[in-house]
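Following up on my earlier thread - several people asked me to post the actual chain instead of describing it. Fair enough. Here it is, all 282 residues.
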Amino acid sequence: MNGSVARTVPRSPAFYELATPPEGRHSSYVRGQNFCVGHTRLDAGEYLSETDLPDEHIVLVPEATEITIGMPGQAGTPVVGPALVIVPAGTSRSVAHGAATLTRVFTTRSPDVVARADNNALYEQPDHAVVPLPDRPPVPGPGTLRIHRAVDVPVDPDRFGRIFRTDSLMVNWFAPEYGPRDTDKLSPHVHHDFEQGSVTLWGDYTHHLRSPWTPRLREWRDDQHIRCTSPSVTVIPPGIVHTSRAVGEGVHHLVDVFAPPRADFAERGWVVNAADYAGSGT
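Reply from S.P.:
Thanks for posting it. Predicted structure:
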C-alpha cells in the first residue's frame, strides 16, 4: 500500500502471550504503533534501567512487592505495590527488593525501546488510520516521580476504571475483579483513530472482536473470540468492534493502554491525575 494512502480495511487484531519463567530475570515486549508494553520478572537485587528517554513512562507494580526507583542525582524512592508510578523523561533505574513482576508502558519515541518488541517488524510501515504521536510531547509533565497507590484510588461508580495519563500515554488500570463478567453487561464499542492495547495481568479472558462489513465481500471477516490466559497483550487496531470478558473463577486483572491520551476520557473528568497536565488541552 502506498504510504500516503490511509487503510480502508482495519488490520487484524494481534494476540501475544508473555513469557513468565518461574525464576530469574526475564522480559517480554510488545508494541503498538504509538506505545510499547514491557513485562518483566525480577528477583531480589535485579534491576531495570532506561537511559535518556524522551518522555515519561509508566511503571505498574501490581502486587504487594517493593521496588526502588531512582534517577541521577536523586535518592531512590521506595514503592510498595499495588501502585502505578509515572517516571519523568530521562534516565532511571528500578530495583527489586524481592521477587517482583513489573509492567511498564512507554511511547514509541525511543528507538531503543521499540527495538526490544518481538513484533517491531510489523510497524515498519505505519497504519495511517492511527493518529500519530507528535514529534515531542505536547505538554511536559511536572518533572517529578509520582506514585499512585491503589489504596488511595478507590473504585468510583461515577468513573470508568482508574485512568491515568502521562505527557503522551493513557492507561486504564482496572481494579482486580473476582469471578466471571456478567454476560448481560458487556460493552462492545469501536475506536476509529487509535489502537488499544489490552494487557491481562491475572486471570482468564475472552476478547470478542468484530470487523465491520465494507462494500467488498472479499474483505469481510468472521468474528473472533480470543481466549487468553495471563499475562498477555492484545493489540486492537482502529475500526474493530471489541469487548473483553473475564471468564472462570478467581482474580482477573486488566490494563488498557492508549497513546496519545484520549480526549474523551479527559472530557468526562475520569482522569485521576488530570491536574498534573492542566495545560495540555486533553
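The two ends are 32 Å apart (CA to CA). That should answer part of your original question.
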